[in-house]
Sequence to fold (306 residues):
Amino acid sequence: MVIAASNGIELYYETHGDPNDPALLLVNGYSSQVLQWGEGFREGLAAQGRFVVSFDNRDVGLSTHLDGVGVDVDAIMTALLTGEEPPPVPYDLATFADDAVGLLDHLGIEAAHIAGSSMGGMIVQQIAIDHPGRVLTLTSIMSSTGEPDYLQSTASATEALMGEQPTGREAYIADVVAKSAVYCSRRYFDPLELGTRTAAAFDRGIDPGGMARQMAAVRVSGDRADGLRALRVPTLVIHGRDDTLIKPIGGERTAELIPGANLLLLHDMGHDLPRPLWPLIIDAIISHGNHAIGGAVPTIAEELQG
Fold:
């Protein structure tokens, strides 16, 4: 098992490809593990000239879990809706960002291309805001800006995400597959593949308390609108028109706020990365990185001088 000390915790990580190639850091979404990327996705990126680094965020998989640290997500949501101060939480999205940068430090990587999906998209946005010098390019996938008006879900997708989950292995797998069908790509949804990946995730370790802490981190972190407007990082935003968990308006708003960002809307993609779309998504990420490095986005000072 490969472990890195980072930001006061330990992160499990995996690498694919040649360490001499430009680094690409992949950041997982809410409650998901490195398995989220699927067998072959990371290898496909590596085959096109990237040293791919992926890891389990804190509180999932084989990374550090803050066992026994409780959060009240309902109380947090109530406070935010009423304009009151939410209860304290153990960490926020900026903490996740610092974890990721700590992993780059451990690997001796000065700067990397970064890509994240869903909550991972929020984290890579935060990395670019807090640590712009560590970012070559940014790819935000099926994510949003933290602004409440642009973080929209259907009622059924919200219910599927937030509903309680059974604890038994077979019941848990069946529950995840059934709920995922609500917001994943309808055209490409593969219950057998998802069931296999979910079984592997269950066997690595499922932590309801960790999921609650991650959800709390997202909720209390606020919006990143001002930080995104100030970014001068080459950015690609990828979103699915079929996404019911974070509707396309989330991706559209992200691309609107970040200067010079490109937006790729995929008609048949929901809130997942379906295997049939991997060639297109991989090519988009690689092409974005290859072209962006040749022409840096101007700084605010350069724009004013111009």
About this structure: The domain at 3-305 is CATH 3.40.50.1820 (Rossmann fold). Confidence is low (pLDDT under 50) at residues 295-306. The chain has twelve helices and eight strands. The CA atoms of residues 147 and 223 lie 5 Å apart.
